[in-house]
Structure formats: structure tokens, C-alpha cells
């Protein structure tokens, strides 16, 4: 079926009162970025819904990308027909034949914004119902919970017909809840945390620590590919790579083994805070789950959080690992996350890290390293990249990836 447009219905935006227009404007911008690969589209945001004119673009490809944009309740591919009832009948039958199987139940639902049109909503429902009863006697009219709804929209420029409603991603348009940074490792949890942040309307920038030569270019590419997996939900995401080799080497040389991980993560959190403040972010998100590893006990969190007053949000904090894995599979980050490229969180991990580090001891051991100098040099070496959903960084090594998986 050749569709003319996709009609988008908003999600939670209906509850936003006076802020509704700013939310719609943000959603419009996010949709435009998410659909940047389709140059012929025309996007027309209205107060109650958004209309995306396809102008010959592939409707299936557009809908696939649209299904990942937060702030959309659902959408329908539609056919535009001139306001001539003979043509409306013809196109409606063609659409029903293409999408509604024999024996299905259906009803007609008309919405009329052009009140100058000759038929009102009830008259249009009756007209279309009578026509389809004759043209498709194999179908059953059912007012409550039918298998299909023929939606008829009478607008000023044309009449739009649709029979399919696709569920959107829900949530809020990314950017309407402020900006934060996400501490992105190469593991399973942090991309899931990023997904949940985006779903609640938070614009995120990825902060990834890398430690060459201890971590490989493949580990860095993997983190960028994980970012690209989340990019469709917003269009593009800034990726901030932070050199961490010198810091890790100094911590390993001067801090007792049991406190290596605690002091290392305090340095990461300091750097994430400095980056967030420099880039206008209001909070730090991470993928910590309570009790999952030594650095994620409540005692460890107290010792690590000691270095910042910036809010730290942990979307997966109370989830079981299997629950996190299920979400990672759903958002297609799991296979990338389990690829065995070590990140800087694991390369210097001690065999017996403290699960209940003492805060006073942690502060004392940290005096043995040059905190200010290490931070300044790391911040001077950061590199910022904008990553889109179409970007791929490990794809050139497909044989290796297939072998690893």
C-alpha cells in the first residue's frame, strides 16, 4: 500500500498544560533529527498531533525509526484522498483490502476538523459503513473492540484514511526534562540506564573513560556503537571520551589494593562532575545496581559519592540482573555489551576489593595521589564526538564479532 503520510499522536504531552507547546516543539526537533536520513519528508506539528508527509519515502523504514522516538503514544500510516466521496470509497476499499483480512471485525471512526465539509462525523460513519457492508460483506461490523478501525480524518486539504495503529515508545520528548551526563562503560547496565534516562525526557551526553594501551581501540569503538544504539531515541548523542590511563596508573602505584576501585571511581565521579558542570548538565546518571559488585554496595556508594554534591541518578539500582538483561535485549545493546573488550573499570580490578570501604581511610589514601593535576590533565585531553544512529564503529570487523558472539 502506498501511504501519503504518517499521523503521530502524542503521549504524556496531553498532561503538560501551559508547557505543551514547548514539549511539541522539542518533539518536532527530535523527530526531525531521528528522520534525518529521509530528506523528502515534510513534518507538520499541530497541537493535537503531528503529520509527517512521506513525499515518496519508504513508509516502513520511516515508521521503524519513528517507533524509537520518545514522546509518541502511537502513529498511523495514512492515505490522502481528495474530498470526493467516490474517490474516498475507492481508496477506502483499496486500503481495507490491503490491510484487513477476510472475516475480521471493524468499525469506522471519523474525525472532522474541516466543518465546512458536506458530511458531519455521524453521516460520514454511516456512509462509509454502508459502502463497506456492500463492498466487503465478509467483514463484521463491531462497535466495541473491533479487530480494525477505519479512521477517517476530514481536513481542509484532503481526507485521510488509515486502518493501522502502531504503538510508539511513550515517555517524554528527550530534552524536556533537562540535561545530564551518563557514565557509559562497555557493560550491560549503563546503556539500559541511558535508555531509561532518555525515556523520561532527559538529554544525555555519554562520558566514557578509556585507558590506552590497557584498553583497546575495539573497546572504545564498542562504547561508541552502544551510543549509536541509543541515538535513534533522540537523533544524535554527544560522546565524550576521557583519557584515564595516567590516573589509573597513579592510583595503582600509590593506593592499597583493597581501595583501588573506590579511589578510582571517586576520580571518575569527580571528572564526570566537572564535565557535567562545564557542559550545562544538571545530574549524573550511571548503571549501578545495588549490591551487584563491590563498588555498588551502599557503603561503597557513600565513599564514592563523597566527592560530589551533584545529583546521581541510578535508573537500574533496584533491578535484578535478568531484568536488566531483558531490557538490553529489547533495545538491542546486549550482544554488543557482552563482547569481550575490556574497559577501564576491569583492567586494574583488584582480586579482593573492599565491599565496605571506610570513608576516612578512603579520603586518607586519596591524599597520596595528585588529584588536581590528574583531573586537569584528563580534562585537557577529552574528545567530543557527535554520534548518530547510522554510525558504526565495529562493523568493519564483522567476522571477528560473529566469532566472539
UniProtKB/TrEMBL annotation:
Biological process annotations from GO: thiamine biosynthetic process; thiamine diphosphate biosynthetic process; thiazole biosynthetic process; tRNA 4-thiouridine biosynthesis
Compartments reported by the entry: Cytoplasm
Family in the record: Belongs to the ThiI family.
Sequence positions that bind ATP: 183-184, 208-209, 265, 287, 296
PROSITE patterns: THUMP
Native species: Lacticaseibacillus saniviri JCM 17471 = DSM 24301
Enzyme Commission no: 2.8.1.4
Protein name: Probable tRNA sulfurtransferase
Record's GO cellular component terms: cytosol
Pathway(s): Cofactor biosynthesis; thiamine diphosphate biosynthesis
